[in-house]
C-alpha cells in the first residue's frame, strides 16, 4: 500500500510551506488575530507535545528526532503490509506525513515551528501546526477503524 505515501508527501509539503510562510511573515510570538477564538502566533517548540521537555538543554532535540525516525520506519513497514484496508492506510499516511514534517524541523532548525493558536477568553490551547493536525487526525482515524472498521462484529 505504498501508493498512500503520496498523502504523506502532501502533508509534508503543506506543513513545510505553511511554516515557511508564517515564519517569513511574523516575529516570534507576534500574533495576528483571525477569528474571535483563533490567532496566528509564531512559536518555537524545542520539546514534544505541549512543550514536554523543552527546557532540557538540547539533548531532547536528538532524542525526539530519533523517536520520530523510528516511528516513521515502523509505520511505513506497517503500511507496506496492508492489503485492502483503506482507512488504516490513510491514517498511517497522515501520521507518517506529520511525523516527517516535524522531524524535518528538528533536524534542520532545532525546534518545531508552531503557529495555530486557538483560545477561549484567556485560556489558550498550546500552539500547533499542520503536521500536528495530520498526526491527530491519523490517530483518530486509527481508533475509528479499530472500533468500527470492516471485520468488526456489531454488538
TrEMBL record:
<protein>
    <recommendedName>
        <fullName>Lipoprotein signal peptidase</fullName>
        <ecNumber>3.4.23.36</ecNumber>
    </recommendedName>
</protein>
<dbReference type="GO" id="GO:0004190">
    <property type="term" value="F:aspartic-type endopeptidase activity"/>
</dbReference>
<feature type="transmembrane region" description="Helical">
    <location>
        <begin position="62"/>
        <end position="80"/>
    </location>
</feature>
<comment type="similarity">
    <text>Belongs to the peptidase A8 family.</text>
</comment>
<dbReference type="GO" id="GO:0006508">
    <property type="term" value="P:proteolysis"/>
</dbReference>
<keyword id="KW-0378">Hydrolase</keyword>
<keyword id="KW-0645">Protease</keyword>
<dbReference type="InterPro" id="IPR001872">
    <property type="entry name" value="Peptidase_A8"/>
</dbReference>
<feature type="transmembrane region" description="Helical">
    <location>
        <begin position="124"/>
        <end position="148"/>
    </location>
</feature>
<comment type="function">
    <text>This protein specifically catalyzes the removal of signal peptides from prolipoproteins.</text>
</comment>
<keyword id="KW-0472">Membrane</keyword>
<feature type="active site">
    <location>
        <position position="132"/>
    </location>
</feature>
<dbReference type="GO" id="GO:0005886">
    <property type="term" value="C:plasma membrane"/>
</dbReference>
<feature type="transmembrane region" description="Helical">
    <location>
        <begin position="87"/>
        <end position="104"/>
    </location>
</feature>
<keyword id="KW-0064">Aspartyl protease</keyword>
<feature type="active site">
    <location>
        <position position="114"/>
    </location>
</feature>
<dbReference type="Pfam" id="PF01252">
    <property type="entry name" value="Peptidase_A8"/>
</dbReference>
<keyword id="KW-1133">Transmembrane helix</keyword>
<comment type="pathway">
    <text>Protein modification; lipoprotein biosynthesis (signal peptide cleavage).</text>
</comment>
<keyword id="KW-0812">Transmembrane</keyword>
<keyword id="KW-1003">Cell membrane</keyword>
